[in-house]
Amino acid sequence: MSKPSGPKRDAKAALRGDGNSDRAPPATVDLCPKQERRIKVISVGDAQVGKSCLIKRYCENRFQQKYVPTIGIDYGVKPVHIDQTETAVRVNFWDLAGPAHYRGLRAEFYEHAQGAMLVYDVADRTSFDALPAWLEEAADHGATPSIALALVANKTDGGRRDVSEAEGRAS
Length: 171
Known about the structure:
Blueprint: H1 7-16, E1 36-44, H2 51-60, E2 73-81, E3 88-96, H3 103-106, E4 115-121, H4 125-129, H5 131-140, E5 148-154, H6 165-170
């Protein structure tokens, strides 16, 4: 059987740069001259603890006063420069909806996360008490033991507290 000839053969040879083509090998172009890394951070916690508001405030510098429930998953991105260097990091925040009926959907997003925000509402004791279950869910669905965790006490400006600052810090 003979080797194919014509345009298909020439294109393959050009890509390999093996000299068996009339075409020059493609030029190498650096489309991303600055080094950019991506970090995947997930936010978990009960419904209505403020996960979406935290992400929107950080990524978009805006506050949403009206409660809009997350349907499944939401997403935010924040480019960050480290130590005033040229190294850029894109922090990708995955806002995972809190209600139990989204558990199957959330399961797809734990894997390969480098960080997790465990969010609770200081005026809602049950959201604080549920945090171990959120950690267990993350571990069950592929979050690595080395994931960086941030415990986030939210809605501290409301005046009422069911979880003290000391109790939150001790966790």
